[in-house]
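Lecture 7 notes: from sequence to structure.

We start with a single chain of 247 residues. Read the sequence below before looking at the structure.
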Amino acid sequence: MTVSLTNFRSLGGYPVANGHIRDGLLFRGGQLDDFSGNQINYLQRDLEITRIIDFRSLDERKQFPDSLWQPVEYQPIDVLIDAKKNGVSIDGMIDNAGDITDVMLATYEQLVVSDSAREGYHQFLEELIEKPEPTFFHCFAGKDRTGVAAAIILKAAGADQQLIFDDYLRTNDARKAANAKIIQQLAPKLSVAQQHSLAQALVVEPDYLQRFFDTVHQKYGSFDGYLTTGLRLPADFSEKLRNLYVQ
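Now the structure, written as tokens:
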């Protein structure tokens, strides 16, 4: 059975160094609020997902709680809890509509250097190594906090840069209908200029992810330096990841 889920996809099958990502283990997407029984059954029974990692803030989780099932393991990890200004939630997008590009670029820097991002991604990646089980990781739209998490996994697994950016940019097609619905719902409360800015905020740009990688190299010298110094992961993390998730 195939069920429609906005911006949801598996990393399984992506080619990486010495193989490809194993199927059935790593899934990315947006929040799971107000899911139907068919959608939950698809995640639980068809995909056999046993762990959900939620990168959203406490306010986002309270406003749009995930639809969960038993006995799925649910772990909230707010990777931007100490970022005072960001554009990754609907409220943040609207509040920062006037300078959303600058805010998003700064957000991607924070996803490298902030304490909450370094601690949050450390926890997330350690979980993947300690318990390799079918995992769905997400944020609000599945594009920024989740996009960076997917990029880290793919880079560590040995994917080339083109594939990493291709996966990241798939979000723009995958969210077209959902983004249009959000803008339509909020239109009565927003000016035309705000609607235009919100439309910009709801998509990803190559420059955003490039800013993440540029900041990694500026701060830590290399991606491996980011893993070991920035995220405090063991020196053999990438090797362990590949052993578990690449075939």
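Residues 115-130 form the longest helix (16 residues). Keep this in mind for problem set 3.
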